[in-house]
Amino acid sequence: MAKPAPAKTFFLFLFLFIFSLPSTAQDSARHFFNKGYYNISVNREAAIDYLTKCIEIDSLYTEAFFHRGICYFKGSRYEQALNDFDRAFELNPGLSIIWMYRGFTYRNMGKTDEALNSFSRYITQNPTDTTAYSYILRGKMKYELGDFTGAVEDYDMALKLKPLEEKYQYYRFVALYDNEMYRKALSAADRLTKINPDFYGYYFYKGNIYSKMGKPDSAIYMYNISIIKNYQNADGYFYRAQAYQQKGDLNKALEDYNTAIELNPDDGSYYSKRGNCRLEKSDKTGACKDWEEAGTLGYYEDFDKVKKVCE
């Protein structure tokens, strides 16, 4: 079979090449957008370059601004991310997901108020978003600003949408506990133990609540369960020791302090509290030794007792 003449081969290649190119500026912009979108999780800088080329061709390409903003956000180039999110919103005010990403960006910049406002704008436009995550994010911002009641309200909204979401229940519990709403915190911890009855931490938290409420026996009961489920958690013994000490059972308290220190010998607070327990048992020498050790480890809460008691 005769080979094609060189000239014919050249023109055939040129014909195929020309017709393989995007036929319009719009097609060319879409071509670069697709390449940029593909590279977002593969090569972020390449994605930015392709999306920038798309924008240079079509300055009204909303998705290119939005996704380039995401690339900038992931690369910690927050001001550039916000500029792109702003431009995308100007082009399409209905693209409400932008408010979530603005919130993420402000949060990473440490601008909690702006993050809170951004998440609120998203919620206003999507009040029944079934992921419920927007309420959690806004709740976290309120929590960081010290508005524990507002945080709980947002967590409650999230739980109405996803009542069995364990981490949402946990966030609500923490806000209640930090707001010293111990009875409600206890109910929240009860829900957590029903959702995940095998996790030792939830019983530990219940023990902490009972201790705060001045109920050492109930606290000890919960710490017992926590220790059964995880016998190597030093904090379980440490806090149970404090509950025993609270009710005046100093021998059992000392045993638990000893166990906690065996499991975690580098925590100065353990020695300091054991020192207090030893002093209550009239062991001044042991107490002074423990307070000295606590100071060596950088814990000084009870260190003033060294001068008052030990010298």
From TrEMBL:
Cite the repeat ranges for TPR: 62-95, 96-129, 132-165, 234-267
> Signal peptide: which range, if any?
1-25
Q: Which key words tag this protein in UniProt?
A: Repeat, Signal, TPR repeat
Q: Name one Pfam family in it.
A: TPR_6
Q: Which SUPFAM superfamilies match?
A: TPR-like
Record PROSITE patterns: TPR, TPR_REGION
Q: Is Signal found in the keyword set?
A: yes
Is this entry keyworded Manganese? no
According to UniProt, the name of this protein is Tetratricopeptide repeat protein
